[in-house]
């Protein structure tokens, strides 16, 4: 049965529990009605919940596909996340509750965070960072990552966070693409009891990053900071974070760094994501529009209250970490849990231990994690008191109804609404989601657009589909939409706003979806050459380029295959150069090579050596057939192949290997 068929048969529906609805920020359809009546006015009202230096008078300027929101207003994101809280009763409230993988704990109040962000902003000044400069952040999930991001925002620098699991080459390409001036990293990062040598990785990258003038190194590893065998400090270029912070004082001896006054359209950050070509795209986000939507969605999707303890398990290296660990929750003055390590270290109960320890009330994670919890068994969460949990969230990939029900029963104990939130790096904030006190949920459906957001399903000719399957589009601009792709506006136009000729106002999301009779959306997954492996976006082209970079490889084709835990796994078909023979050792070598080039998340599960790849007469590799092979299906139409024999022999080989 196909995914679509499974979803079409899903008929369970869960209205908001009355006990939840009664106290919810939104317990009826008022917000949806407000958004539908006048989306611009709705977003303007959301924007006015922020603290502006100069209030905006214009809401939206829309010259498709370029939008500007609140363009004549000025503000600073760090003021919205910090200053406005320390002026009031939140001054001593916990902002971040941090737990490291080895078990170390640190709590930073809003005042602590405010002080450290100001100090690090002074450090950035001292390193010569100016408004508009780019700063790369390659850090573990530690409070310094949040401090670094907010300090960039304070001085008006554009941060570019690179996931700590990415390889030196991936880091190098991202730094070079946006010409970062400073890199902030750490000596190491804990993962499953091991220390990942982040600074050593960074040094490899930096050998080919001429734009970097300074490197700031957080001491994360236990032990002496001068442990030269592990961390090399290059005099003049590299600086220990704690030393710079100790000296960070302004002329009057205080720590205050006045926030830069930023236009709403000034850039807040660039974040790289995979697309259909080998080169990652630098997705560019604005200050005012981005913050408006990040803050509004955090408040209403998570029904955020003053006393909540909120935990989003994403990494800060992904957009979910940006919007729902840093900007959205902190703009709302929330208490956020930050955890550094793996969910199964030292035991498979770590997440539930953390939920109990800090009294987590709102928990937001990914389906790939939920499927792992399911596989490990309900006895792990059952060891803990999870009675404080009141709301659960899911993001990153389609959640299968079975995983949804398990989450509902074993984590939510039937009491917590689940918000399945669909959105993307490009959308900046949640776009399709239930409002937990107002929307009845259905297992596997992200339900309906957030107020002020307009979605539609279209066929490839641009015809709208009311009920059934189609391509997902967003049909009106929204404040947190990407503004462009760093250095390549044409690619921005071509990728997102050219799917339907003559309609430069329609945003093409790259996802397929279905809509049911109630207008609910069921996201089916990517329709382009982008894989979603355990919630991480990886372009097939990126993996192919990494493979052909190996001296033994002549040609490579990469496809996604369904995987029980990861959603999708990577299957690669490889032809070898003359003089190289297939072997198990070479297979392992190629898998490691990809992990080294891109990062461990891109390591292929399967590699099949083949004398040839199935191609059309015009020379295009037929990935559809490779997917059929990788997933063990009967082969689809092979009549357009130049040599139908190739694919039959591939299928035999693949099956023999399994
Ligand atoms: C936030 C994030 C975006 C892609 C997106 C889609 C998939 C995200 C989903 C979902 C089904 C959900 N996706 N949330 N699919 N249901 N609730 O993940 O951003 O890393 O850019 O990935 O993830 O395919 O297009 P990003």
From TrEMBL:
Annotated Acetyl-coenzyme A synthetase N-terminal domain residues: 29-81
Listed InterPro entries: Ac_CoA_lig, ACAS_N, AMP-bd_C, AMP-bd_C_sf, AMP-binding_CS, AMP-dep_synth/lig_dom, ANL_N_sf
Record key words, sorted: Acetylation, ATP-binding, Ligase, Magnesium, Metal-binding, Nucleotide-binding
GO biological process: acetyl-CoA biosynthetic process from acetate
Keyword Glycoprotein: no
Residues bearing PTM N6-acetyllysine: 620
Cofactor(s), names only, from the UniProt record: Mg(2+)
Protein name: Acetyl-coenzyme A synthetase
């Amino acid at each position: 049965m196909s995914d679509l068929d499974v979803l079409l048969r899903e008929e369970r529906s869960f209205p908001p529990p009355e006990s939840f609805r009664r106290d919810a920020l939104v317990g009826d359809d008022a917000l949806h009605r407000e958004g539908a009546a006048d989306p611009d006015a709705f977003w303007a009202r959301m924007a006015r919940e922020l603290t502006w230096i100069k209030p905006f008078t214009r809401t939206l300027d829309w010259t498709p596909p370029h939008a500007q929101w609140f363009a004549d207003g000025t503000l600073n994101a760090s003021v919205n996340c910090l200053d406005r809280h320390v002026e009031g009763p939140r001054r001593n409230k916990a902002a971040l509750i941090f737990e490291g993988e080895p078990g170390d704990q640190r709590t930073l109040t809003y005042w602590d965070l405010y002080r450290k962000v100001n100090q690090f902003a002074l450090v950035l000044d001292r390193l010569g960072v100016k408004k508009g400069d780019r700063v790369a952040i390659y850090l573990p999930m530690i409070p310094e990552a949040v401090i670094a991001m907010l300090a960039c925002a304070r001085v008006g620098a554009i941060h570019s966070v690179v996931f700590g699991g990415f390889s030196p080459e991936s880091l190098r390409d991202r730094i070079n693409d946006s010409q970062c001036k400073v890199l902030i990293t750490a000596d190491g990062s804990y993962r499953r009891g091991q220390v990942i040598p982040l600074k050593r990785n960074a040094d490899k990258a930096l050998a080919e990053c001429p734009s970097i003038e300074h490197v700031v190194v957080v001491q994360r590893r236990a032990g002496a900071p001068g442990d030269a065998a592990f961390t090399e400090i290059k005099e003049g270029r590299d600086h220990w974070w704690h030393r710079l912070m100790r000296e960070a004082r302004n002329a009057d001896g205080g720590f205050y760094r006045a926030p830069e006054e930023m236009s709403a359209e000034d850039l807040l950050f660039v974040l790289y994501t995979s697309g259909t070509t080998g080169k990652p795209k630098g997705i560019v986000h604005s200050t005012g529009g981005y913050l408006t939507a990040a803050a509004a969605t955090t408040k209403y999707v998570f029904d955020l209250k003053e006393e909540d303890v909120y935990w989003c398990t994403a990494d800060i290296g992904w957009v979910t970490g940006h919007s729902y660990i840093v900007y959205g929750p902190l703009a709302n003055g929330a208490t956020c849990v930050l955890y550094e390590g793996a969910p199964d270290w030292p035991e498979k109960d770590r997440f539930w231990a953390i939920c109990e320890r800090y009294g987590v009330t709102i928990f937001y994670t990914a389906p790939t994690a939920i499927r792992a919890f399911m596989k490990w068994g309900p006895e792990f969460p059952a060891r803990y008191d999870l009675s404080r949990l009141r709301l659960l969230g899911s993001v990153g990939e389609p959640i299968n109804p079975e995983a949804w029900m398990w989450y509902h029963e074993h984590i939510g104990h039937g009491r917590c609404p689940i918000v399945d939130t669909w959105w993307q790096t490009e959308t900046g904030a949640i776009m399709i989601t239930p409002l937990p006190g107002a929307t009845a949920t259905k297992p596997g459906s992200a339900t309906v657009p957030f107020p002020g957001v307009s979605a539609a399903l279209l066929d490839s000719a641009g015809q709208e589909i009311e009920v059934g399957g189609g391509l997902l589009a967003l049909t009106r601009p929204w404040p947190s939409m990407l503004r462009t792709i760093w250095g390549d506006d044409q690619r921005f136009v071509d990728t997102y706003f050219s799917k339907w000729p003559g309609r430069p106002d329609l945003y093409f999301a790259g996802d397929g979806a279905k809509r049911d009779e109630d207008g609910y959306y069921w996201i089916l997954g990517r329709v382009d050459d982008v894989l979603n492996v355990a919630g991480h976006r990886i372009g097939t082209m990126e993996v192919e380029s990494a493979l052909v970079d190996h001296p033994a490889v002549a040609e490579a084709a990469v496809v996604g295959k369904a995987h029980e835990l990861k959603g999708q796994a990577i299957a690669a078909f490889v032809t070898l150069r003359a003089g190289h023979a297939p072997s198990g050792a070479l297979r392992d070598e190629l898998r490691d090579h990809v992990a080294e080039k891109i990062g461990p998340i891109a390591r292929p599960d399967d590699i099949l050596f083949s004398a040839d790849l199935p191609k059309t007469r015009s020379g295009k590799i037929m990935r559809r057939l490779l997917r059929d092979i990788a997933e063990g299906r009967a082969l689809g139409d092979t009549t357009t192949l130049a040599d139908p024999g190739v694919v039959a022999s591939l299928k035999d080989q693949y099956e023999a290997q399994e």
